[in-house]
Amino acid sequence: MSNLVLEMRQGDMMVVNGAAIRFRTRTRIELTAHARFLFGRQIMAPHDATTPARRLYFALQTAYIGEESERQAGLSEARLRAAEFRAVTTSKMAMALLDQAMASAEANKCYQALRLVRRVVAHEDAVLGRPRSSGEQGEQGVRRGAGGAGAE
Length: 152
What we know:
By secondary structure, the protein is α+β, with helices and mostly antiparallel strands. Helices cover about 45% and strands about 15% of the residues. The strands form two sheets. Strands 3-2-5 form a three-stranded antiparallel beta sheet, with no helix packed on it. Strands 1-4 form a two-stranded antiparallel ribbon.
């Protein structure tokens, strides 16, 4: 694995292998080994999981960055949330993304699954007419320095 360098701002939050880290100052970090991590706006708080797609994202997030004891339960919850989402959508695009995301999750590629579900969340927001706040993002917003390997 090549190293991944991330630029973190003061106040940014990061979860690495289940441990939450808040940066007190602007810093640049380098991950030199495989780690399960999310940071900044990639992290969804439990109170933000208010729609079917968001509940699915939160479950997959738990399967990815939760403590070891939480990961299997997160994947089981994601399966339930995927079924819930299927029951309320008619969008072929959303269903295709959902199928790809769950296949990735089942293959232990939860970071890839989260990336796909972010697109489902954006689609759901558009369909529901829900404006995306400046604190939310799709695929953009990841700040990387030199390096460049992904999390998985």
